[in-house]
Amino acid sequence: MIRKNISNAPQIIYEVDLNLDNQKLIETIEEHRKLYPQGEVSNVHAWMSSYKTHRINNNFDPFIEKILQAVDNVRESNPDNFCNLSKITYNVTDFWALIYDNGDYTDEHNHFPCTWALAYYAYADKDSSPIKFFFNKYKSLRIKPRSGMLLLWPGSLSHSVPHTRGKRIAVSANLMVREFGK
Ligand SMILES: [Fe+2]
User: Fold this and answer.
1) Is residue 3 a part of any domain in this protein?
2) Residue 117 Cα, ligand 1 centroid: separation in angstroms?
3) Which of 53, 67, 107, 148 could be a cystine partner for 49, CB 3.0 to 4.6 Å?
């Protein structure tokens, strides 16, 4: 028999201030949207690009590189939470861009079996809705995005985005461990 884990121990979510060139990133996302206005159909009820955007538009490469560097910095700053591994490299399994306008939202979902999921907010209006994480049936956490915020969380952690009023422009990725060092 498989029992559902009812522990209320929070899974770790990292919040990082990351200084990317947000203007340039927003331009890159908007140019991409012009090329692919239809976007991907998913649990995201907002415009989102293909899950494989990193494979079709290399203008995102410098941003992905800096985000991966930030993920590495998170490991270095929190060694106990990463089994004190000396090195971890990741495959970027998926990478996509998102533009939420008034009324857009995302259903509850998770990114299992990916190791980490992340979102970087290039722009978030003051009245942009939070991202809501669900630890179990009774416990959740809302985090309000800010322009320049990177969020990193375990891929199995469920989350949603309630209907937003304000605009938000973001990129997201799924990471899988490729290699690690003792
Ligand atoms: Fe998600």
Assistant:
1) no
2) 7
3) 53
